[in-house]
Design goal:
504 residues; mainly alpha; 2 domains; globular
């Protein structure tokens, strides 16, 4: 299992790196081939249909905890697996029916800023994406099962294959004239293949125990109570990251949705950087909670959160500073093209406040493991409502940038202030120690910040060669400075070990 954990972390970052490279190469081509209006429509419909993922009701997030409680008891595990598969099959059918019904009311969902042609295409996109969501609901449960058994190597390789296959299939189709409808068709087919592969792995390789007898209603009730707050968190995430697109669809039309969509792409890349490591530690967090006393849990959680937080912070520092300096040129001249100038400011409003929860996202797993995730759900719900109320007038006045500003304000209050108090006071995680460990890394950031300032002041980025050379200089300075001045001995040894394994 230890080897699986180490390999899982390495493969996670390989997968992340490949994903980023593919997105940076493929997305610009896709955006230009689709055009701003159709890309905006694609983003708008995808964001709307993603709400059907709420039909999971938070149950997939609960699986890990209840698996940990049944660990070692084959009969209980078999019953648990059977119960979750039945639940998700029913929920997938419900999501499909709901999605099909909603697809007949595109104007009511997306507003009157869309043309007749856009509304017609939106309906088709919705119908295909509904099938995708239904498949993904059950496949997501299978991913949770595979993670619970700590089979990270298979999971990361399967994910990597999906990442690589999608652009290689869709790009030729886009070049010969197909548009957004074909994109979602390919995505749905790949989701179906991933689903089939997950089933095969669970049955043939892991040989998960499975029983559909003895449906425990008491256990289902317990899971339901636990999952209810996870469900609220899912609603909140949808509001924070997708409602802005719907607001912009009603107030501004598909072009502003496209600008926000580009900003969201960069924000999602930052999230990917952070979650790859913390997701691998999810089973470990649950086992710590299940097997230790309160004092031991508090100490181990504090150390784990600080350890992962430092790594995430140092990793995220490079793209964050780089994006501040080079982001606008990159978006307009390389990634998306003219008409997307505001995407840089919108992206910064999304990314910078999100840095706090991103370096603390292992805390979410800790809340679930200790069954203390209810408070976060309530606070985030209040903040999400506040986000909507603030974003509507701001989006109407400032477009995509205004919508991002509303999200930024709510994130700062919820994550920067309230959740840090909660971690310290309720979970008994020593947040003073956590931030002390984070601040220790700042001495390695001084030289990169000075370098970035000098580049912005004295080297105007006006062509590709200057851009490329400037980025390379900045990356070398950042990596050298951080490794020398910010990393502790454990982090240095970890990095050198990874480099050594790659060389072999």
């Amino acid at each position: 299992m230890k080897n699986q954990l180490k390999a899982g972390v390495i493969l996670s970052y390989i997968s992340t790196a490949v994903s980023i490279v593919i997105q940076l190469v493929y997305m610009p081509v896709m955006i230009r081939l689709l055009g701003q209006s159709e890309y905006g429509l694609y983003s708008l419909v995808s964001g709307a249909v993603s709400y059907l993922g709420l039909f999971s009701l938070g149950f997939s997030g609960a699986y890990m905890r209840f698996f940990a409680k049944s660990y070692g008891d084959k009969e209980k595990t078999a019953s648990l697996n059977g119960m979750f598969l039945i639940l998700f099959s029913v929920l997938a059918v419900m999501a499909t029916i709901c999605g099909i019904v909603l697809s007949f009311f595109p104007k009511q969902i997306f507003g009157d800023k869309l043309t007749v042609s856009e509304l017609s295409k939106a309906k088709i996109l919705m119908l295909i994406l509904v099938i995708n969501i239904a498949i993904s609901l059950i496949s997501g449960l299978l991913d949770s099962i595979i993670s619970a058994y700590e089979q990270f190597v298979f999971q990361r390789i399967a994910g990597l294959a999906s990442i690589v296959l999608s652009p290689f299939i869709t790009l030729p189709l886009l070049l010969i004239g197909y548009r957004s409808i074909m994109l979602v068709v390919v995505s749905t087919i790949l989701a179906l293949i991933r689903f089939a592969v997950n089933i095969w792995f669970c049955i043939q390789k892991i040989k998960i125990p499975l029983s559909f007898k003895g449906f425990e209603w008491r256990l289902l009730k317990e899971i339901g109570v636990f999952s209810s707050f996870l469900f609220i968190n899912m609603i909140i995430d949808q509001i924070n990251w997708n409602v802005d697109k719907l607001i912009l669809g009603h107030t501004s039309g598909t072009n502003e949705v496209a600008v926000y969509g580009v900003a969201s792409q960069f924000n999602s890349l930052f999230m990917t950087f952070s979650t790859t490591v913390s997701s691998v530690f999810s089973p470990r967090v649950n086992l710590i909670a299940a097997q230790n006393g309160k004092n031991v849990i508090s100490t181990e959680f504090t150390n784990l959160m600080a350890k992962i937080g430092r790594i995430q912070w140092l990793i995220l520092g490079l793209p964050t500073l780089g994006f501040i300096v080079f982001g606008k040129y990159f978006i307009v001249n390389i990634f998306a093209g003219k008409g997307y100038e505001d995407a840089h400011a919108a992206a910064l409003f999304l990314i910078l406040p999100a840095l706090i929860p991103l370096i603390q996202n292992v805390g979410i797993e800790m809340q679930r493991a200790l069954n203390k995730h209810q408070f976060r759900a309530i606070i985030y719900l209040i903040m999400a409502i506040g986000n909507v109320l603030i974003s509507i007038p701001l989006a109407g006045k400032f477009g995509a940038v205004g919508a991002a500003m509303g999200t930024a304000l709510s994130l700062l209050v919820a994550n920067g202030l309230i959740m840090n108090i909660f971690y310290h006071k309720v979970l008994k995680i020593d947040m003073k120690y956590f931030w002390k460990e984070i601040f220790k890394t700042f001495k390695g950031l001084v030289i990169p910040i000075i370098t970035a300032t000098l580049i912005m002041r004295f080297i105007p980025v006006e062509n590709m060669w200057v851009f490329f050379i400037s980025v390379c200089i900045f990356m070398v300075v950042y990596c050298t400075s951080v490794f020398t001045l910010s990393c502790n001995n454990e982090e240095k040894n970890m990095l050198l070990s990874i480099i050594g394994k790659i060389k072999r």
